[in-house]
Structure prediction request, 257 residues.
Amino acid sequence: MRITFLGTGTSQGVPVIGCTHPVCLSQDPRDRRTRSSILIEKGNKNLLIDCGPDFRMQMLKNRKDCIDALLLTHEHNDHLAGLDDLRPIYFKAKKPIPVYALERVLEEVKYRFSYIFSEKKFAGKPELSLLSIKSQEIFDVEGFRILSLEVQHNDLFILGYRIGRFAYITDASFLPETTIESLKNIEFLVLNTLRIKPEHPSHFSLPQALNIIKKLSPEKTYLTHMSYEIGFHKDLIKDLPSGVLPAYDGLSIECLY
Ligand SMILES: [Zn+2]
Prediction:
């Protein structure tokens, strides 16, 4: 199973428009972070987790052109604003793209992209089939067995996903005990880490993320959903404990299923 980090940035992306922070001015491509999303490939099947406003450029940059299913973590714009750009994928595959999410999130998708679901047929819209899931649900998608995980994002209940020995958690500020239990014995963990300090109500800061990592002891952890306040990639990579690495856009890893 291959994981490609399409984006590793927080909601505004890095650089932030108009920001003169040194990280936003960095020429290191690893400091340029588009909105968080990953692509999971196994055999000839591709799963996408989240589809933010940078989705189109992420697919072009990584030379990817197929999505067999989409898993959404939650309804915030940086995680689903790119849904309309699934059009070329649908036009090529000629079959509706399944979208898995919490019922509340699917309702939000129908509201924000009402034209996709309108009775009126027109050629230029993508076809999406919306499939409601709950937390702690095991479901099969195109040969992937997936477990959905409950994640607390400030006062919003959202989803993380475990697929084999890989798990993807973004936008977490707290992980309930059932999720902690479900994350035992994993090879690769992807975990959101906004910045070093101060703490944030909706996202783990670095000390909070490191606490979770210590509890779960995955073989390797990649940090994602980072703001410019996390610092330069080249500094961060030196400061993190062994087995913990900052992800960056375009990074691709091979992982056991
Ligand atoms: Zn969010």
Summary: The longest strand covers residues 144-153.
